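Sequence in, structure out.
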Amino acid sequence: MSSDQELIELVLQGNKQAYSQIVDRYKGKMYFFLYGMIGRPQDAQDLAQEVFIKAYFHIHSYKPDYSFSSWLYRIATNHCLDELRKQKRVQCIRQENGSHEENSFAHHRTPESIYLEKERNAVLHKYIMELDESYRAVLVLRYIEHLSYKEISHILDVPVTTVQMRLYRAHKKLRKLLKITEKGGTDHELCEI
């Protein structure tokens, strides 16, 4: 299997098949990242395609100082944030009643535990979607994509301390929302986001 850098060199030489290998390598990660940011499966799929098209036309600007995946996540983050801003403007113009898609990553054995996990994820996902995009981005990059603070810093083009502060504030806001919802129940574990 070729490295990202080898494939990029081939793409720069005009080999479109090499780019399809890059897409195959990262399409799953991009989809789940964008789904975590936008919350709707079809929109995440559309955005992922747009990100790969944008990356293809700007691949000449990639510098190998950082990993290709960081560069790709940066494009995806910026594109997604632009889309979220655009949607906010549209929502101000018209009110929509959309259905909430549930995010289910149930991996447990019993039907009861599957149901509880599904409910927990739905509540957590709902509150993550209510957070400001800057907080949502760091949560998704850190806990879903498992990126380091340094990688997130590069992707979002902010200092590492800003990433840490945003994660802290996002956790604080989520804990507050979850405590209000559960009133007397146990807190959700934020380390499992």
